[in-house]
Amino acid sequence: MANQTYTFTLPSGSEVTFRSPFGADRVNVIQMLKMSLESIAGNTLMIDGYVAVKCITAYGGNPADGNYKALYDSLPQEDLDFYLAVFEELFGMSKDKRAEAKEAAAFLRKGQTYIASFNSQSTPTPLATTDG
């Protein structure tokens, strides 16, 4: 999923194209905001919003210029809310992904090897056991 891009039309009729996020995106946003460690937790939603907008590669038929803060500030609220909801649905920890993670942790606690399927319709099975 790392190199895939997605395109859809926002409520205003503008088209948006975006990529999947990388860990460095969050670090870059935190550095840009110049936040202290104490304020990061309280500003998670703002950070998440900037990370999502940082992943936009084109908006309204024009390539993104890299100034994601200005783009965030200029998006109509309805478009921003809709885009953030789509982004979170694609890349956030959904109930299915969270359940998969819990199941993976349960296997690992038992000393078993686990490969995530991220398919909510399949039941994961242990691949091997390890001597612990």
Outline the structure in words.
- Helices cover 48% and strands 15% of the residues.
- The protein has 132 residues and is of the alpha+beta class.
- The chain folds into two domains: 5-91, rbstp2171; 95-129, no CATH class.
- The strands form two sheets. The protein has a four-stranded antiparallel beta sheet with strand order 1-2-3-4. Strands 5-6 form a two-stranded antiparallel sheet.
- A hairpin with a 5-residue loop joins strand 1 (5-9) and strand 2 (15-19).
- Helix 1 (23-33) packs across helix 3 and helix 3 crosses helix 4 (68-74).
- It is globular.
Architecture blueprint of SSEs:
Layout: E1 5-9, E2 15-19, H1 23-33, H2 37-40, H3 44-54, E3 56-59, E4 62-63, H4 68-74, H5 77-91, H6 95-109, E5 112-113, E6 128-129
Antiparallel strand pairs: 1-2, 2-3, 3-4, 5-6
Helix pairs in contact: 1-3, 3-4
